[in-house]
Amino acid sequence: HCVSFSCLSSGLFIAMIVSLLFLVLLRFTAGVLFWIFIFGVIGIIGYGIWHCYWEYDHLKGIPGSDLTVYDIGFQTDFRVYLQLRQTWLAFMIILCVVEVIIILMLIFLRNRIRIAIALLKEGSRAIGYIMSTLFYPIVTFMLIAICISYWAVTAVFLATSGEPVYKVMANQTLCKYANLTCDPETFNTTNVTKLCPGAQCTFAFYGGESLYHKYIFIFQLANAFVFIWLVNFAIALGQCTLAGAFASYYWASRKPADIPLWPLFSSFGRAIRYHTGSLAFGALILAIVQLIRVILEYLDHKLKGTQNSFTRFLLCCLKCCFWCLEKFLKFINRNAYIMIAIYGKDFCTSAKEAFFLLMRNVVRVAVLDKVTDFLLFLGKILVAGGVGVLAFFFFTQRIPVLAQEAPALNYYWVPLLTVIIGSYLVAHGFFSVYAMCVDTLFLCFCEDLERNDGSTAKPYFMSASLHRILGKKELSPKKA
């Protein structure tokens, strides 16, 4: 156990160091990693096209290969379809269409891809100047832990707030007193023990007949709603705090000279002092939708045994619609909190301005999201996989230095999986800060383009690399 705990703590520490190094290296390798991935995908699809053509040509003249899929009908063995030329021709056409789409997207979206990569590099540079933001997820984790503790204690108090109910537990199935209520103090003086030998008066549950006891389920539901609301508020507070810190970096005329001394602490103070109502309102909207999803899941569980297909179809549609609504609200809330941190306006105004700003830059949003998601997912896999390999060598005693100290383990898969999952969560915590940084810089970049023109009166705040990509130059005083 001590060896497993030592390896776990060491693995999490290594995951933290590797995550920090990966975020720093993104400043120099973001573009390289993305283009290697893109050209790798193009190469793999190209090889697939060639292989499909080779199979198509190889099956020429073989009896039965010229049959169509319609001729052979539905077959459970998929290998039957691989003996048909039509199958490989369809695969080749599909791969050719995908290849052409990817190449055309690279040709027509190359500038937007370059902007996305430049924003990723700028995000790494911003985190380098405000390193304290990487450790803010610890604050969010502590707040969520407090919320969970509050919910659990309240739920236990509600569940045990009734009067204890005792019932007769008899070994004999023919006992007529079985499952009837009883009083443990007077049970031994009754005839139940004589008529049902071995019967006992045991505790069953907490209950009651008052109006309060009838609505305990409603109170539990209200407690769950408050819990969801508080968790969403803690997340919203973290997003607004990080957005304010990174926005102070972007809007600084001289970086890093004009960045505030304590940007994260100042942003946290502003969020608590001025934006608590807006954050609570945004969290409330999201909590209502999530509570409806919980109720739908509960109804689906209760109605699972019914044979009414229409009810199951209706519940499935409702669950799908509210799932999409929750994803949309999370996206809107996230960007609304960024606008709140930048301008300090109320939630509804900030959400409206963020939504229309993103719609005016919808192609850039799509490209940035895909590039960011790929790089961050790659980073999480690299961190978790690298730490997992080290832990595997540690537990299997393949490292000579550690083999002398670490005793052999009979079941090392459990601590190994724990190390891998823990490393992935550590990497996710660091990369979530990086994702928030990129989203904040992107909204600031879009606002910068719309509100400024590069003149002396309205200079751009974007970095020099974004200047070069956009082909925009600062206007001279004479032209301004």
From TrEMBL:
<keyword id="KW-1003">Cell membrane</keyword>
<comment type="similarity">
    <text>Belongs to the CTL (choline transporter-like) family.</text>
</comment>
<keyword id="KW-0813">Transport</keyword>
<feature type="transmembrane region" description="Helical">
    <location>
        <begin position="374"/>
        <end position="395"/>
    </location>
</feature>
<keyword id="KW-0472">Membrane</keyword>
<protein>
    <recommendedName>
        <fullName>Choline transporter-like protein</fullName>
    </recommendedName>
</protein>
<keyword id="KW-0050">Antiport</keyword>
<feature type="transmembrane region" description="Helical">
    <location>
        <begin position="88"/>
        <end position="109"/>
    </location>
</feature>
<comment type="function">
    <text>Choline transporter.</text>
</comment>
<dbReference type="GO" id="GO:0015297">
    <property type="term" value="F:antiporter activity"/>
</dbReference>
<keyword id="KW-0812">Transmembrane</keyword>
<comment type="function">
    <text>Choline/H+ antiporter.</text>
</comment>
<feature type="transmembrane region" description="Helical">
    <location>
        <begin position="129"/>
        <end position="159"/>
    </location>
</feature>
<feature type="transmembrane region" description="Helical">
    <location>
        <begin position="7"/>
        <end position="26"/>
    </location>
</feature>
<keyword id="KW-0325">Glycoprotein</keyword>
<feature type="transmembrane region" description="Helical">
    <location>
        <begin position="411"/>
        <end position="431"/>
    </location>
</feature>
<dbReference type="InterPro" id="IPR007603">
    <property type="entry name" value="Choline_transptr-like"/>
</dbReference>
<feature type="transmembrane region" description="Helical">
    <location>
        <begin position="32"/>
        <end position="50"/>
    </location>
</feature>
<dbReference type="GO" id="GO:0005886">
    <property type="term" value="C:plasma membrane"/>
</dbReference>
<dbReference type="Pfam" id="PF04515">
    <property type="entry name" value="Choline_transpo"/>
</dbReference>
<feature type="transmembrane region" description="Helical">
    <location>
        <begin position="272"/>
        <end position="296"/>
    </location>
</feature>
<keyword id="KW-1133">Transmembrane helix</keyword>
<feature type="transmembrane region" description="Helical">
    <location>
        <begin position="224"/>
        <end position="252"/>
    </location>
</feature>
